[in-house]
Write a structure and sequence with these properties.
Layout: E1 9-13, H1 17-23, H2 28-49, E2 53-60, H3 68-91, E3 95-99, H4 107-120, E4 127-134, H5 136-149, H6 157-162, E5 174-177, E6 196-199, H7 209-220
Parallel strand pairs: 1-2, 1-5, 2-4, 3-4, 5-6
Helix pairs in contact: 1-2, 2-3, 3-4
The chain binds 3-methylbut-3-enyl trihydrogen diphosphate (2 copies) and magnesium ion (MG).
Length: 229
C-alpha cells in the first residue's frame, strides 16, 4: 500500500446482511448482528490505514419500509452497540458524527446518539460519520430549505455545500459497496460527484481488514482526472 495515497474519506454502503443470514438459514437480525462486528473490524482497519473520515450507511430513509420487527431490531442493535463502544471511542480518539434527519427516530435512539456524539466531540482522530435515517435527496433539500430561510434567492454549489449536514466533511475519495449491488441507493449524491467506486461481492458481515485494504489498493491504482486530461 502506498502510504502517501490513503484516501482522507472512505464511505461504505454496508449491504448484504440479510443474504448472509439467509445463506446460513438464520433470521435477518443475525445478519445485522454479524454486520455490527464487521463495523468494528472496518473501523480498526480504517484507523490503522490512516483514513480520517469513515462514513457508514447504517439506515436509509427508505429502510422504514421494512417490517417493523426488523426496524426495531436494527434500532436496538444500534443503541446497544453505541452503549458498548462509546467509552472505547473516547479512549481511541474517535469522533462520532451522525448524518440524517432526526424525525422519526425514537427518543431512545436520539438520546443514545446525542450522548455518543457529545462524549466524543473533542476527539481529534478518525471521524466516524454514521448515516442514520439518511437520504441524499433529503440532505440536499435540507440544504436548500436552510438557504431559502436566509432570504437568499439563488445559490451556488458552495452555498449548498455549506448547508449540508456536515459542511466540513470532505468529499469521499472512495465509496465501497458490498454484496454485489452496484447502485447508490440515495447515498451521498452531492458528495459523490468525483468519488471512485469499489464494488465487491463480499457480503457485509464477511467484510474485514483484508477486504478494506483491497479496496484501498484498487483506489490507489485509479487515475483521477476531475475533467482534465
Ligand atoms: C444492509 O443489509 C443493512 C441495512 C440496509 C440496514 P441488508 O439488510 O440490506 O441485506 P440484504 O440486502 O437484504 O442482503
Ligand atoms: C442501502 O442498502 C442502505 C444501507 C446500506 C443502510 P439497501 O439494501 O437498503 O438498498 P437497496 O434497497 O438494495 O437499494
Ligand atoms: Mg440490502
Amino acid at each position: 500500500m502506498q502510504q502517501n495515497k490513503i484516501p482522507q474519506h472512505v464511505a461504505i454502503i454496508m449491504d448484504g446482511n440479510g443474504r448472509w443470514a439467509k445463506q446460513k438459514h438464520l433470521p435477518r437480525l443475525a445478519g445485522h448482528n454479524a454486520g455490527a462486528r464487521a463495523v468494528e473490524r472496518t473501523l480498526k482497519a480504517a484507523q490503522k490505514a490512516g483514513v480520517k473520515f469513515l462514513t457508514l450507511y447504517a439506515f436509509s430513509t427508505e429502510n422504514w419500509s421494512r417490517p417493523k420487527e426488523e426496524i426495531d431490531g436494527l434500532m436496538k442493535l444500534l443503541c446497544q452497540t453505541l452503549e458498548k463502544y462509546t467509552k472505547d471511542a473516547v479512549k481511541n480518539n474517535i469522533r462520532l458524527w451522525i448524518s440524517g434527519e432526526r424525525e422519526p427516530l425514537s427518543p431512545a435512539v436520539l438520546q443514545q446518539t446525542d450522548q455518543a456524539v457529545k462524549a466524543t466531540s473533542q476527539n481529534t482522530g478518525l471521524t466516524l460519520n454514521l448515516a442514520l435515517n439518511y437520504g441524499a435527496q433529503q440532505e440536499i433539500v435540507h440544504a436548500v430549505n436552510a438557504l431559502v430561510a436566509t432570504g437568499k434567492k439563488s445559490f451556488s454549489p458552495q452555498d449548498i455545500q455549506a448547508h449540508l449536514y456536515h459542511p466540513d466533511l470532505p468529499n469521499p475519495e472512495l465509496i465501497i459497496r458490498t454484496s454485489g449491488e452496484e447502485r447508490l441507493s440515495n447515498f451521498l449524491l452531492w458528495q459523490a460527484a468525483y468519488s471512485e467506486f469499489y464494488f465487491t461481492p463480499v457480503l457485509w458481515p464477511d467484510f474485514d481488514e483484508a477486504e478494506f485494504n483491497k479496496a484501498l489498493q484498487s483506489y490507489q491504482n485509479r487515475k483521477r482526472r476531475f475533467g482534465g486530461i
